[in-house]
Design a protein that fits this description.
Length: 199
Amino acid sequence: MFRQVNVLWCTLALGLLAAAAPARAADPEADPTPAPPRLISLASTAPIAIVVGQPVQFTDQSGGTPTSWIWDFSFDATQPATDSTARNPIWTFGTIGVYPVRLKICDDTSCSATIQDVTVVEPCLLVGDLLLPVITPALFDDTATYEACHTITTQGALRIGSAADVTFRAGRRIAFGSGFSIDSGAKFTAIVDFRLDTP
């Protein structure tokens, strides 16, 4: 299966979300008593998910007149790194997980830094929509996971049997047709996971 790889563009204000982020080690380079906000560190990335192996455009949206940018895409307060000094770098995450992304900006007199967690997920098994079942009527009586980036829709007489352990995962919604049924004793899980909702 071929999957188109796109560079993602979108806007997310890191500085505005920092207060809601979980507690983490103090940033040794952040200004503990910042002056009035000449510089406000803002960055952008996909608002829904970053897919592992897919290039992502990060865009500086800082106020003021910064003259330098330091991006660290897996920040560790004990070992700060410089992954890019471009203003708007493109970065590809090689493994799934949650990464604290740090942007530090400086002008001629001061610096400002901010951190935002970014979630990197596996790509969908099926890009787009999934219509189940292909042939009706159908009995699902085994262990299986059905996944779609966008929507899973059931049609006709689809039955989840008593011996089944079935999971539906979709990025936008799961729609059940009028013929859908679940037997007593069946294990059935339906998950709408916005992180799957990729182009």
